[in-house]
Write a structure and sequence with these properties.
The complex is a heterodimer of chains A (108) and B (115). Chain A contains no helices and 11 strands. Chain A is mostly beta strands. In chain A, a hairpin with a 5-residue loop joins β4 and β5. Chain B has no helices and 11 strands. In chain B, strands 2, 4, 5, 6, 9, 10 and 11 form a 7-stranded mixed β-sheet that branches. A 4-stranded antiparallel β-sheet of chain B has the order 1-3-8-7, with no helix packed on it. In chain B, a hairpin with a 2-residue loop joins β5 and β6. The relative contact order of chain B is 0.32. The chains are: A mainly beta (108), B mainly beta (115). Chains A and B meet through β4, β5, β9 and β10 of A and β5, β9 and β10 of B.
Chain lengths: 108, 115
């Protein structure tokens, strides 16, 4: 079993829909990262959080440390949100363990 | 700031050849990392460095070497390329010490094929 599990693996939505991507982990962590990988391959850090909730524009990330679970929400989804979303947990020092990613496709 | 600059973007090697992937960051970050990304798999840590002169192995270090002579540069060396090293390689950096500073910054990636 992977230390970091993401669901779903693939997600297709219509423009305007509310999207949720989930991340569960099995180890103690100091922080959790959400990353976005564009179709061209570039990777951008969206959030780093260790408790509670963070919001940036239409993106919201939450984490429940007790339940070892995090969610990434996208409100009013748009085709430009189509990308792979990656969850990564920070354990010892600054080492990260990555999930396999969720491929999101938003259709117009 | 240019951020993290990674070169080359693409490379094809023959089995047994060697090459160096270059990575430079201009953000004065202490921590630098090399990851590989195989199709359908999560990123795997190859090597990392917490500062100039200090490097350590990650999950998948075999077949690779690194050096960190300056804060800015963290090259990754493949000595005897093998088909199993066909992958996309990402360099990343971060500056620990505060929550706002621990976000990762990634290079644009190197697509390497070993034939």
């Amino acid at each position: 079993k992977n230390e970091v599990e993401q669901s779903p693996q693939n997600l297709t939505a219509q423009e305007g829909e509310f999207i949720t991507i989930n991340c569960s982990y099995s180890v103690g962590i100091s922080a959790l990262h959400w990353l976005q990988q564009h179709p061209g391959g570039g990777i951008v850090s969206l959030f780093m959080l260790s408790s509670g909730k963070k919001k940036h524009g239409r993106l919201i990330a939450t984490i429940n440390i007790q339940e070892k679970h995090s969610s990434l929400h996208i409100t009013a989804s748009h085709p430009r949100d189509s990308a792979v979303y990656i969850c990564a947990v920070q354990t010892s020092g600054s080492r990260l363990t990555f999930g396999e990613g969720t491929q999101l496709t938003v259709n117009p | 700031n240019a951020g993290v600059t990674q070169t080359p973007k693409f490379r094809i090697l023959k089995i047994g050849q060697s090459m160096t992937l270059q990575c430079t960051q201009d953000m004065n970050h202490n921590y630098m990392y090399w990851y590989r990304q195989d199709p359908g798999m999560g990123l795997k840590l190859i090597y990392y460095s917490v500062g100039a002169g200090i490097t350590d192995k990650g999950e998948v270090p075999n077949g690779y070497n690194v050096s960190r002579s300056t804060t800015e540069d963290f090259p990754l060396r493949l000595e005897l390329a093998a088909p199993s090293q066909t992958s996309v390689y990402f360099c990343a950096s971060s500056r620990p010490g505060g929550r706002a500073n621990e976000k990762l910054f990634f290079g644009s990636g190197t697509q390497l094929s070993v034939l």
